[in-house]
Design a protein that fits this description.
Elements: E1 6-8, H1 33-37, E2 52-54, E3 67-71, E4 80-84, E5 89-93, H2 104-109, H3 125-136, E6 142-145, E7 151-152, H4 154-165, H5 167-170, E8 184-186, E9 189-192, H6 199-231
Parallel strand pairs: 1-2, 5-6
Antiparallel strand pairs: 3-4, 4-5, 6-7, 8-9
Length: 232
């Protein structure tokens, strides 16, 4: 619509130029409503044509002086985070989250909790761990993520260091499609995928997730809607 360039890592370009679709989600992870609903989320790539362009190799961000892009894969092959050294501002994307994205309640209420990447759409947990460690090493003063409200101050930043140190215990699932073997990708897109979990369980999980979403939505509307009427 705006006919503007979209800059991305070279490993992300196949999914932005119509050459490949993203690896499918793993709804068995996270033990939350959003994880169960993940088979219903879009995973198809899009085609931006010649508007999709590679990020500069020197780490600069076109049109954003003072910002540096950092390759933080794991959630997706070409995932990047943005950092500004002048004030320590970090835009982490989905390398980390500031709410638990697998939980519909946490997402709807925006309950703050520093977490790893969305489990159901993370395709390489070893790289995801390295990405969190790289971000913690920056010692940011402000953390903005793709899921959850921004965090600032010493306590959240200390939590980021703890998350990097204890990633396997706090963020990495014990089992799942991509936990033991990651999706393999390159500049062409997806090269190989580990076998999927049982399809029947996924279908029933998605259906139960839809039912639970309807129930949760009704409950939240009744509770918070009633509260808002009283306060008015």
């Amino acid at each position: 619509m705006w006919d503007v360039p979209v800059y991305a890592h070279t490993l992300e370009l196949p999914f932005l130029t119509g050459r490949a679709d993203y690896p499918p989600p793993d709804p068995t992870l996270g033990r939350g409503l959003m994880a169960r609903l993940s088979p219903l989320f879009p995973e198809r790539g899009i085609n931006l044509g010649d508007r999709a362009r590679p990020l500069p190799a020197d780490g600069t961000v076109p049109g954003a002086p003072g910002w540096q892009w950092i390759h933080t894969p794991g959630h997706s092959p070409g995932h990047v985070s943005l950092f500004r050294h002048s004030d320590g501002a970090l835009v982490a994307g989905d390398a980390v989250t500031t709410t638990r994205p697998e939980s519909a309640f946490a997402v709807l209420t925006q309950r703050q909790e520093l977490s790893g990447p969305p489990a159901y759409f993370t395709i390489d947990w070893r790289k995801a761990h390295r990405a969190v460690s790289a971000l913690a090493a920056l010692s940011p003063s402000l953390l903005a993520a793709g899921h959850g409200a921004p965090m600032r101050g010493p306590a959240p930043m200390a939590s980021l260091t703890v998350l990097a140190r204890e990633f396997d215990a706090r963020a990495r699932p014990r089992r799942g499609r991509y936990v033991q073997a990651p999706a393999v990708t390159d500049e062409r897109g997806v090269v190989a995928l580990p076998p999927p979990p049982r399809s029947r369980g996924i279908r029933w999980g998605a259906l139960s997730g839809v039912a639970a979403a309807a129930f949760a939505g009704t409950w939240l509307i009744r509770r918070f809607g009633r509260h808002s009427r009283v306060t008015k």
